[in-house]
UniProtKB/TrEMBL annotation:
It is found in: Cytoplasm. GO terms for cellular component: cytoplasm. Functions in complex with FlhC as a master transcriptional regulator that regulates transcription of several flagellar and non-flagellar operons by binding to their promoter region. Activates expression of class 2 flagellar genes, including fliA, which is a flagellum-specific sigma factor that turns on the class 3 genes. Also regulates genes whose products function in a variety of physiological pathways. The keyword Lipoprotein does not apply. The keyword Disulfide bond applies. This is Flagellar transcriptional regulator FlhD. It holds the Pfam family FlhD. The C-terminal region contains a putative helix-turn-helix (HTH) motif, suggesting that this region may bind DNA. GO terms for molecular function: DNA binding. Homodimer; disulfide-linked. Forms a heterohexamer composed of two FlhC and four FlhD subunits. Each FlhC binds a FlhD dimer, forming a heterotrimer, and a hexamer assembles by dimerization of two heterotrimers. Belongs to the FlhD family. NCBIfam families: PRK02909.1-1.
Protein backbone atom coordinates (compact mmCIF):
# COMPACT_ATOMS: atom_id res chain seq x y z
CA UNK A 1 0.00 0.00 0.00
CA UNK A 2 1.27 3.45 -0.88
CA UNK A 3 1.80 5.82 2.04
CA UNK A 4 0.02 9.17 2.19
CA UNK A 5 3.17 11.29 1.67
CA UNK A 6 4.06 9.39 -1.49
CA UNK A 7 0.51 9.66 -2.78
CA UNK A 8 0.53 13.42 -2.14
CA UNK A 9 3.81 13.73 -4.06
CA UNK A 10 2.44 11.72 -7.00
CA UNK A 11 -0.67 13.87 -7.14
CA UNK A 12 1.36 17.08 -6.94
CA UNK A 13 3.65 15.88 -9.72
CA UNK A 14 0.63 14.91 -11.83
CA UNK A 15 -0.88 18.38 -11.41
CA UNK A 16 2.42 20.08 -12.23
CA UNK A 17 2.81 17.90 -15.33
CA UNK A 18 -0.72 18.62 -16.56
CA UNK A 19 -0.32 22.37 -16.05
CA UNK A 20 3.04 22.33 -17.81
CA UNK A 21 1.59 20.26 -20.67
CA UNK A 22 -1.29 22.69 -21.08
CA UNK A 23 1.10 25.67 -21.07
CA UNK A 24 3.49 24.06 -23.57
CA UNK A 25 0.57 23.21 -25.85
CA UNK A 26 -0.61 26.81 -25.72
CA UNK A 27 2.86 28.19 -26.45
CA UNK A 28 3.88 25.87 -29.32
CA UNK A 29 1.58 22.95 -29.99
CA UNK A 30 3.80 21.01 -32.41
CA UNK A 31 6.88 21.30 -30.19
CA UNK A 32 4.82 20.35 -27.12
CA UNK A 33 3.42 17.23 -28.78
CA UNK A 34 6.96 16.19 -29.65
CA UNK A 35 8.43 17.04 -26.23
CA UNK A 36 5.62 15.42 -24.28
CA UNK A 37 5.44 12.38 -26.54
CA UNK A 38 1.66 12.60 -26.84
CA UNK A 39 -0.76 12.21 -29.72
CA UNK A 40 -2.80 14.97 -31.33
CA UNK A 41 -5.92 13.53 -29.68
CA UNK A 42 -4.36 13.63 -26.22
CA UNK A 43 -3.13 17.18 -26.89
CA UNK A 44 -6.66 18.24 -27.90
CA UNK A 45 -8.12 16.61 -24.82
CA UNK A 46 -5.64 18.21 -22.40
CA UNK A 47 -6.20 21.63 -23.94
CA UNK A 48 -9.96 21.27 -23.66
CA UNK A 49 -9.99 20.34 -19.98
CA UNK A 50 -11.21 22.87 -17.43
CA UNK A 51 -9.21 23.22 -14.21
CA UNK A 52 -11.69 21.07 -12.29
CA UNK A 53 -11.05 18.12 -14.62
CA UNK A 54 -7.27 18.63 -14.49
CA UNK A 55 -7.44 18.35 -10.71
CA UNK A 56 -9.58 15.23 -11.01
CA UNK A 57 -7.01 13.55 -13.28
CA UNK A 58 -4.09 14.71 -11.13
CA UNK A 59 -5.62 13.11 -8.04
CA UNK A 60 -4.96 9.66 -9.49
CA UNK A 61 -2.67 7.36 -7.54
CA UNK A 62 -0.92 6.56 -10.82
CA UNK A 63 1.95 8.62 -12.20
CA UNK A 64 0.54 10.06 -15.43
CA UNK A 65 3.84 11.03 -17.04
CA UNK A 66 6.50 8.55 -18.09
CA UNK A 67 10.26 8.63 -18.34
CA UNK A 68 10.96 8.88 -22.06
CA UNK A 69 14.46 7.44 -21.89
CA UNK A 70 14.62 3.71 -22.49
CA UNK A 71 18.37 3.48 -23.03
CA UNK A 72 21.28 4.47 -20.81
CA UNK A 73 22.88 6.42 -23.68
CA UNK A 74 19.91 8.78 -23.77
CA UNK A 75 20.43 9.57 -20.10
CA UNK A 76 24.18 9.93 -20.56
CA UNK A 77 23.60 12.65 -23.15
CA UNK A 78 21.91 14.74 -20.47
CA UNK A 79 25.04 14.45 -18.36
CA UNK A 80 27.36 15.71 -21.11
CA UNK A 81 30.31 17.82 -20.07
CA UNK A 82 30.04 21.60 -20.22
CA UNK A 83 32.01 21.53 -23.46
CA UNK A 84 29.24 19.42 -25.01
CA UNK A 85 26.42 21.46 -23.47
CA UNK A 86 25.58 23.28 -26.71
CA UNK A 87 25.18 20.02 -28.61
CA UNK A 88 23.14 18.28 -25.91
CA UNK A 89 19.63 19.67 -26.69
CA UNK A 90 20.08 18.98 -30.40
CA UNK A 91 21.37 15.50 -29.76
CA UNK A 92 18.49 14.76 -27.39
CA UNK A 93 16.01 15.98 -30.00
CA UNK A 94 17.60 13.74 -32.63
CA UNK A 95 17.42 10.72 -30.31
CA UNK A 96 13.78 11.38 -29.45
CA UNK A 97 12.87 12.01 -33.09
CA UNK A 98 14.51 8.77 -34.17
CA UNK A 99 12.59 6.89 -31.45
CA UNK A 100 9.37 8.47 -32.69
CA UNK A 101 10.17 7.57 -36.30
CA UNK A 102 10.93 3.98 -35.30
CA UNK A 103 7.67 3.75 -33.36
CA UNK A 104 5.69 5.05 -36.35
CA UNK A 105 7.34 2.53 -38.69
CA UNK A 106 6.35 -0.39 -36.44
Amino acid sequence: MINRDTLDEIQEMNMTYLLLAKQLLSDDRAAAIFRLGISEDVADYIQSLPSRKLVQIARSSQVICALRFSEVRELEVTLATRRDHIETPSHQAILLASKLANAVEQ
